[in-house]
């Protein structure tokens, strides 16, 4: 396979994709994850991952697209819903983003990282330094799935099972 460049990641995000199989949630102390293989993008083995804290319904949820790079899974697109505020504080952020808060609900789109070499992005910055705010914010988990499906171009995300919350979910 040829070396991956940012343009490949942007194309992979924009391509229509679908979840393979029927993924289930895996519960561990302090987190639950749902991991699924996806197809539809011509860029190697892609994975869709969602991560939640079972004790905090509708809070601090992340949906990610990952690729295998140098033998390790690296997320190249991430949608954070009601998580920690992202301030775009790294000077590598492009003009218009540096020191501009993306709020608690935001996306780390590979297009925002197109000025960063893959080796640098996946080597030093594994957490994706640039994000843009998502407004309006989804008001419940089903809406989060709908926005995720739209952002990641994976219609089948809408049919995924809800996380195994240990406390009732509230629409905040």
Can you characterise this structure?
The protein has 172 residues and is α+β, with helices and mostly antiparallel strands. The chain has one domain. It contains 3 helices and 8 strands; from the N terminus they run αβββββββαβα. Strands 1, 2, 3, 4, 5, 6, 7 and 8 form an 8-stranded antiparallel sheet that branches. The longest helix has 12 residues. The protein is globular, with a radius of gyration of 16 Å. It starts with 5 loop residues before the first helix and ends in a 20-residue tail after the last helix. The model has no long low-confidence stretch (mean pLDDT 90).
List the helices and strands and how they pair.
Blueprint: H1 6-14, E1 18-19, E2 25-28, E3 31-39, E4 46-52, E5 61-69, E6 72-81, E7 106-108, H2 118-123, E8 132-133, H3 141-152
Antiparallel strand pairs: 1-3, 2-3, 3-4, 4-5, 5-6, 6-7, 7-8
Amino-to-carboxy terminus distance: 45 Å
Rg computed from alpha carbons, rounded to a whole number of angstroms: 16 Å
Q: How many distinct beta strands? A: 8
Which sequence of SSEs, written as H and E, runs from N to C?
HEEEEEEEHEH
Low-confidence stretches: none
Q: What oligomeric state do these chains adopt?
A: single chain
User: How many separate helices?
Assistant: 3
Largest sheet: 8 strands, antiparallel
Q: Which structural class do the helices and strands define?
A: alpha+beta
In the residues, how many domains can be counted? 1
**Proportion of residues in extended strands:** 25-35%
What helical percentage do the residues reach? Answer: 10-25%
Indicate the mean pLDDT.
90
């Amino acid at each position: 396979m040829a070396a991956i460049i940012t343009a490949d990641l942007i194309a992979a995000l924009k391509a229509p994709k679908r979840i393979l199989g029927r993924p289930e949630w895996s519960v561990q102390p302090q987190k639950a994850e749902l991991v699924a293989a996806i197809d539809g993008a011509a860029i190697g083995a892609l994975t869709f991952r969602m991560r939640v804290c079972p004790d905090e319904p509708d809070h601090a949820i992340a949906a990610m697209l990952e690729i295998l790079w140098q033998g390790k899974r690296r997320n190249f697109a991430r949608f954070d819903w009601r998580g920690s505020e992202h301030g775009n504080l790294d000077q590598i952020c492009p003009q218009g983003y540096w020191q501009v808060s993306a709020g608690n609900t935001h996306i780390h789109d590979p297009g925002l990282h197109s000025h960063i070499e893959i080796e640098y992005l996946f080597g030093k910055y594994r957490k994706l330094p640039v994000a843009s705010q998502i407004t309006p914010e989804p008001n419940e988990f089903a809406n989060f799935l709908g926005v995720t499906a739209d952002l990641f171009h994976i219609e089948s995300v809408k049919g995924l099972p809800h996380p195994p919350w240990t406390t009732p979910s509230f629409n905040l």
